[in-house]
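Subject: Sanity check before I submit

Could someone independently write out the structure tokens for this chain? I want to compare against mine line by line before I put it in a report. The sequence has 477 residues.
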Amino acid sequence: MKLWGGRFEKDTDALVEDFHSSIAFDRRLYKQDIAGSIAHAAMLGRVGIISPAEAAQIVAGLESVRADIEAGQAALETGTEDIHMNVEKLLTERIGAVGKKLHTGRSRNDQVALDLRLFLREETDKTRALLASLIHGLLELAETHAETWAPGYTHLQKAQPITLGHHFMAYAAMFLRDRGRLGDARRRLNYSPLGSGALAGTTFPLRREEAARELGFAGVTPNSLDGVSDRDFALEFLSAAAIIMMHLSRLAEEIILWSSGEFGFITLDDAYATGSSIMPQKKNPDVAELVRGKTGRVYGDLVALLTVMKGLPLAYNKDLQEDKESVFDAVDTVQKCLLIMKPLLETMTVHRERLAAEAKKGFMNATDLADYLAKKHVPFREAHAVAGRLVLLCGRKGCALEDLSLAEFQAASPVIEADVYEALSLEAGVRARDLPGGPAPAAVRAAVRAARDELRSEAEAATENGARIAADSEDMV
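---
Independent answer below. Compare away.
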């Protein structure tokens, strides 16, 4: 008989059994489910709802169940529906009727909400750690290439010269924001729904705060209806994951372009590229292309859960069973992509000479010429027009701005002097952009230092917070 089957007179149809069961995917939550059950049982014992001896027996039984699942020695059954029922069944088989007391004062509704929060808290920390690793890799590249001159683009057209280090720092800034988003989401998810029951709490005098502290939560959810039906925390993770994938996809797209023969800025390491089954000459950026392609599935995971949630009345509905596969897929996809992107970047070869040569093409110093004129008190709009006319002249002659004679410059504007050639040089133009956040080598190195300081400070704060939580848990025990 089902654990909930007391009011039923017929067995569940086999088709419903299979359709209804979630153990095929929610088995992944066994660690979280058992951790929540241990905290719940220990609290029941402290309150006196069950005896301390019964609580200890349940805790020991749950620990043995966890060990056997990890060793592959515990069978999880489709007919037992989900991970919660499977764990309780295994526990009861081991310790007898005492195991049936575990579910006192709780529902699978608050149980699964708890499990998913515990899971996402752990996976958020892992994802943030992978982001930090990728950021450190980008900072190394930025520092290495702080004086690697490169073309900057708008509309995929050459725009102004920058440094490759500045380009890498743009992605470091994106991934730092991603870490911040995940950190914000983690703070909001870190509240325990355990004790919300099915929707209306329980008549038992539970100490919700004690169980929450034991599980490392900052507190308890303030409303039992919301506690069991809220999936905002999952949506926030999926939203942050989708944005991470968007950033990874943008980076992947640039790697694909840069490694092409048309650009020729980089060569990918053989270990992070593939070949063609028919064309012997091919070296394809398949890893970057897969990262770009997998972005769509994470977008789909977010949209899927948003769609599940959009019409649900309070409180719990079976639709919420559909939350986990989207979350699991997004977690796995984002983490794999973050894991592979760092070595892909670290092992590629950068062709500095090619980058510098391209940075000198396309009249990318035209803005420097306009700025030169503005510094000589020519109104900027007039300076812009003068620079534009000189670009047009160079286009007709087939030369660069710096190839014009001084007489040709002065014919366009009498304020131009011989120092214009220094102002138009690639290196001088980039070095002059020494503002915070700018492409100048000094500015890039300062940005690298600031990013490292940010990561270091956050790591120290996290260590202190972890030690405080551990001490609070010890005090409670």
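---
OP: Matches mine. For the report I'm noting this point. The chain is about 65% helix and 5% strand.
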